[in-house]
# Entry
Amino acid sequence: MSRTKTLKVLLTFASTTRALMMEQEAAKVKAPGRLIPIPVQISAGCGMAWMAPQEARAELLALVKEREIEVEAVYELFM
# Structure
């Protein structure tokens, strides 16, 4: 049984502290997504990324800007 891959947005962080801050702030506003281990296709400082549907990209980028959460990189991957 194969799953259809969908386009996801991934935000990576230089430190675990920033990744956990993202998780905390996203929960406050019920933003879509969750923390996951970094996929093998990319590498990032702390080894964690926030994954959400691609449609949530603008909402998440606004959240990190508003809450001053430093993001290392933004990726779009089929997962």
In short: The chain is about 30% helix and 30% strand.
